[in-house]
Amino acid sequence: QVQLVESGGGLVQPGGSLRLSCSMSGFIANHDVMAWYRRAPGKQREFVAAIAIARATKYAESVMGRFTVTRDNFNKTMWLQMNSLKPEDTAVYYCNHQDTNFCGQGTQVTASS
Fold first, then answer.
1. Range in 1-5, 20-24, 54-58, 104-108 the model is least confident about
2. For residue 80, what are the β-bridge partners?
3. Nearest to 82 by CA among 3, 6, 2
C-alpha cells in the first residue's frame, strides 16, 4: 500500500516561489516514477513534472524553466520547487505514484495579488 502526503502549499504573489513536499511511504521502490499533477478549478487534472531513476526528469511545457522536481530516496521525499509563479499556476497540486496512479490529498497553491 502506498501513502503520499503533500505539504508546502499557500498563497503567494505572482512572481513568487513555493516549495512543495511529498512524503512517501509504503510500497514505493527507488526506481518507481513519481510525479506531480495539478487540478485548477473547473479544469481537468494536468501533468506538471515527473522524476524517475537516475534523477531523469520530465516537465510540462507550461512550467519548464520555472519548476524543478527533486527526490531523496533514502528519506522518501520528493519536492517541487516552483519559481516565478503565475496566476495560471493556481491549483491543487498532487503527488502521484505512477505505477499505481495513487495520489495524495493535495495541497492548494494560489498565486494572486
1. 54-58
2. 20, 69
3. 6
